[in-house]
Fold each of these.
Amino acid sequence: MVDHDLVVTFKAQLAMCGVKPGVLVAALTEGQTRQDYAQATLIATRELGGEAFHVNLPPRTAGAGKFTTGKTPLENNRPIVDTLKGVDLVMDFVGLLFSREQNEMLDSGVRILMVTEPLHVLKALSSSKDLRRRVEYAGELLTKARTLRFTSPYGTDVTYKLNQYPVLTEYGYTDTPGRWDHWGCGFVLTSGDDDGVDGKVVLAPGDITQVFQTYFTSPVTLTIEKGYVVDIAGDGVDANLMRGYMESFNDPRAYAVSHIGWGLNEKAKWHNLATTKNARSPAMHGHPERGVNSLSFYGNVLFSLGPNTEVGGNNDTACHIDLPMRNCSLWLDGETVVEAGRIVVDEMRAPGF
Ligand code: FE
């Protein structure tokens, strides 16, 4: 079922991504998921004068019960990867992030937009050039920085050395060859040097675990030495869930500290997860919320664990946990960027914030 609203929404987004006559777009799906988005892509691309086709892959069964990162139905599917390397824009309804296949496509100049959210979230977090400007400014600041430190009222105090990895911007659309983005996002990220993260992170009630799609209700204290979590302390369900989930991967590299950055999308809401993660709700059109609001809400410090292939590193563990945190303060080379969850650099501030 493809309704008018869906096509209109996709048309606006594809236009932001530079779709016009002469541009070739591929819609990539797996199983029966997001078939309506693929059809909307085909119709909207046509309306913009471009050409489009749809690749539907068989659904994954391996890794059920876990959110495995970087393992996609494209693994070992050489003909499809080669085909997708020939298009201008891949609309990714599968989730190729962290995969070698995605990096290979980007290296060949394809731009990729990942789409994971229900329609009402895609509409609410529609892209803007102003968000792009503010995220790109953040990217410049982070690129220049050699150290990043962040703290929280619960006792977080952790420092990253930043020399090794590039900075990625996410502002929700992409019209740049070889660039990836994620519809609805608005944040900036990089990774610390391989052995360059030390300190303590205390996840507090109200912080979010993306992989469980829940809010923390009890503090969890992570001790970090040379880029790895060496201890997970806490008596509550949250600490036990984290320990159990991470142990289930049987992979010491799951304990590496992954990307770090901060959220800049004033349209994204911290509370959204509380109301819209239930896919059975009529408003959801069968798509559960996958957490773009949580990753992007204005002033969050986005801490994470697991792989670093996203920034070109070697850790390709399938265990990735994004942990958006509230009320943190963050400094780059001693200059304040976020103060108790508020953005304090004028060039990055959203209108009215
Ligand atoms: Fe992440």
Amino acid sequence: MTLKRLTYNATARYTHDITTGFAGMRASQFHIRTTKETPNDAEIVSHQLMIRAGFIRRLGSGLYTLMPLGLRVVRKIEAIVRDEMNSAGAVELLMPSIQPAELWEESGRWEKFGPELLRIQDRHGRDYCLGPTHEEVITDIARRDIKSYRQLPLNFYQIQTKVRDEVRPRFGVMRSREFIMKDAYSFSLGEESLQACFDQMHTAYCNVFDRMGLEYRAVEADSGSIGGAQSREFHVLADSGEDAVVYATEGDYAANMEKAAVVCQTSRGDASESMATVDTPGVHTIAELSAKLDINETQCLKTLLVKGTTTAVVALVLRGDHQLNEVKAEHLDEVASPLTMADANDIKTAANCDAGSIGPVGLSIPVIADADAATMSNFVCGANENGKHLTGVNWGRDLAEPQIRDLRNVIEGDLNPMGTGTLKIVRGIEVGHIFQLGSAYSEAMGATVLDENGKPQVMQMGCYGIGVTRVAAAAIEQNNDAQGIIWPESIAPFEAVICPVNMVKSEAVQAAAEVLYQELKAAGIDVLFDDRPLRPGAMFADMELIGIPHRFVISDKLLANDEVEYRGRRDSESSVLSRSDVLTKLRK
Ligand code: ATP
Ligand code: MG
């Protein structure tokens, strides 16, 4: 009956996904290699499952082959990204991985980038790097090709292999040394136009991650030395994430930990105690100090000395239970960049003691206090003498009022800086980053256009990245169970799988499976026909590990009633469907 429906249909030839070219596969002609072993270095579930299910194979530290299953996922991610970039008016090109050092010297990054930049020489001894990103190359193209404001705005993108000699490659393709990134670079005349490009990319990124069915947040991020410029990171939420993401319980404020602003909630109490010196032999940390004196850490003041710009060192003080935010500290004019902790010699010179006994009383260097530290009264701090601390210390009485800045990481329960509700902290995996570069590169490299009045103007740039291979891993972190991966349909290596039971013994099963395979393919479904001579249990286990969203089982028993068995990858039980309802089920 069904056979007749499957007469050749000319349009069926074009029903496969034209963006990926994928239109179903027979397992016997594909390459599926699952394993029960979990590699020792695989700390997180996505890394373990990608290896066990045969999506990636390790070649060396931070170097992975995308096996056929893994490549299918990556191609589907790329197709979604490409579609959204094209819809947003971005134009695709492809730049080389190998980039001449001269360009990097022009931007100043040949010196600045550090060891993450993998540098190579050619046979003539000329210097090159393997591109970790492509601002220099694209700016070189823009300064040659874009001459008039009439050509703007313009947004170029590519999907390309990046190389970064990561200090600690780990988590498989989550942080590898070679990975696939979509990077886009917009060129505009004026900041308004840059903002419009940025907003457009923000929307495109939301569309991309929505289409992948991922739970994510777009958060404010630090824009480094480029003041005022906007920067947003897109994080997939997962407990294994390397980053802390801060968001408000009410309203839509969200930021990464580096950027999240603290609103001081306390006011200073009365100076009711007098200052006294106490012996604290062997006390070096806030924890030891609070234990020794039997006081709360909130009553202790922490003093850190860092290298300064106009003075050798600067004192940064925080409430004992708070953590220094290094990015906020680095932005202070008084503090040297990159942030560098004072060494033992510097500490001896400035405070005449070791690191565990420093306090702000009597120091003749700038003292910058976090806002919460500045509200403390009757506090305990180091006495600038080894083995001694001061108690009952008060600002303005025992030492000068400090300069007050936001210096600390937010903690759960802090006030939302936008005024509504409080802050919560979750873990996130950074999968994308959009950033206003302004004129940082275009100025250094002389990328100008003529404006309406024929005057040369430096172009405004934005850059926009998505970690394509990292997205695959992040999707698994968010979607897995004891049996394996649960792919979101839009990026699954196959949308559906047909599992025939004992096909070798039953011609009827074989014929029915073949018909269903052809039918699903013709309907444009990227279906896997598991025609391997495996027992059902082993076949099902493989398909669950690989994470295919929809499974159809065909057996003699089911065929007798013209039925198939269906199971969605998240379903706890299978259900029986009429054979004619298969396509309806999938279309739902
Ligand atoms: P991270 O803080 O994780 O190192 P980054 O700030 O260096 O990221 P960008 O330079 O903004 O990252 O790169 C754009 C995107 O490329 C990131 O959002 C991330 O998804 C991806 N990415 C960056 N480094 C790696 C890597 N080593 N392996 C895989 N993907 C990466
Ligand atoms: Mg990095």
Amino acid sequence: MHFNLETIVAWAKRRGFAYPGSDIYGGLANAWDLGPYGAQLHKHIVDAWWRYFIQERDDMVGLDAAILMNPRVWEASGHIASFSDPLVDCKKCKARERADKLIEDNGGDTPEARTFEEQYRYLVEHHVTCPECGASDWTEPKHFNLMFKTQQGVIDGEGKDIYLRPETAQGIFVNFKNILDTTRVRIPFGIGQIGKSFRNEITPGNFMFRVREFEQMEIEYFVENDITVGLQWLQTWKEISEQWRIEQIGIKKEKLRFREHDPKELAFYSKGTWDVEYEFPRGWGELQGIAYRTDYDLKQHQEFSGKDLQYTDPMTGKRYLPHCIEPSWGLTRAILTAMIDAYDEEEYLNQKGEKETRVVARFHPNIAPVKYAILPLVKKDEVQVQLGKELFHKLSKLYSCEYDDNGAIGKRYRRQDEIWTPFCITIDQQSVEEYHATPESVTVTVRERDSMEQKRVLISDLFLSLGYL
Ligand code: GAP
């Protein structure tokens, strides 16, 4: 079934996944705060990524670099000179738009590959209209740098200009030598990190799809300086990235596609770049980029910093600047995708046998915001509450759990189904009787979400019988 973005936004707010930023002040355009379930979803995606790509691999190390960096970093990386979008103004209503986006929305392909002059010509020849006022009268495109500039220092106006990082990747390149010097990594190896990035987007929007403050999960995977080897690793990273997305966080395969960059679109130093796209409610959009960047970044930083960034092969003694493959995921877009992909509505029969519709967000168990819900059947029963709370404190040391003793059990199951909690554990009268007989023999009911199968399990066996989540 197809659900529009407004449905997802409304549900995300209602169920505590995402709230408009600074809500009580009327919000701040295109800023979103993650609510309790959104924060859990975020953490589980981060954990799934870190575990799969860093913890479980012996060729990867992690990093957590600072957001504020020496401005020379951005000169070396090319961001000061060319990290910009083509900005056009509507002469009638003064709306500011991205020329490349206008072209794309009006049927033009590979707008990034066109020069500013060609983009302007397209707008004129195709009578592209302003989305705000409908006029077709544009200024010529000009460069708009997307980096947020700020000042470091205590005196207003006299500090040094610095930037909020527009990507996490440069933190990896500038630490390449530190990591070589302080760890035992050998080519091929990768460095991964997760963190905030900032871009002063001209046209943010579509919920969390394009925002000015977002998070990325990026890897630089360093390989031999040989194009055949590099291209093989590019293919490998396409495959591993897809496996993670589908198997570890459960994104539907049929909603994903790879798009290869057209040679005209490709950066001059790249030997191949792919976008992974997802079919969002308003069309296909980029979820992840996978780029073979050769030795461009290390070469630039070596030149600008004056530091030798070469790698020495321990077997042959050969010194060279490694090539690198960069798989770069948007974490904020991954959260959005997980919510869209999981959201579903289904009909069910209520206790009176009438048909009703309920929302079920079918999250993969790895990322479901709550893994175990603990539900004492009768709130007024002191023993049930005591057993429930004890169980919550034990299980929550390992998993995200929710304790809920409020309302009819059917309603509580439905609340958990809506966020697709994999296991509900109910404590009932039988548990109380067992407690009074022999406290070690207390059993509870475990309801498994997908099969709705219920089984009685000894509390002492719970940790053995529950799957790892
Ligand atoms: N270091 C490479 C890099 O930053 P990118 O394609 O510009 O490449 C990587 O960004 C990913 O970051 C994108 O695929 C997207 O998921 C995410 N991203 C980029 N800009 C974003 C924005 N304004 N809002 C949310 N996510 C964004």
Amino acid sequence: MNNNANESRIIQLTEFGDERGLLTVVEGSNTIPFEIKRVFYIYGTANGVNRGLHAHYKTRQLLVSVSGSCTISLDDTKRKKEVVLDSPSKALLLEPNDWHEMYNFTPDCVLLVLASHLYDSEDYIRDYSKFVEVYG
Ligand code: T46
């Protein structure tokens, strides 16, 4: 798995479709390169709001906009990249060293996040100069 923000970490999830509609599966380590320890989702985001603006020490995450869309910017101190999550079958793998920001949330956006670690506020790097010190 390449760690550079310029390398695509988009995972195309399999869609099972029939006359009833669609079903998409994330099946643990068969789909993503970590064990899922935590699931959360971001929704009801007010117009113009930016979230994130941090990196992590350990946590890896998979982001899927299961409804609506949003944009994620990634910065690994060397390269920057922007990804639009606009399909329930399109997932973005976020590595700990991705400084990330989420924005352009549509009112119906539900951003599902699967995480490799339990919540720990000490795992966050919220200061950009500290981020560059750690990962630059
Ligand atoms: C990330 C991006 C993609 C908890 O108590 N437990 C949790 O598991 C989480 C994720 C959050 N919280 C609390 C901590 C804050 O009081 O929920 C509040 C909002 O969290 P935060 O401001 O960190 O939310 P975002 O949207 O900036 O970031 C979240 C994740 O925290 C983060 O890991 O990478 O989504």
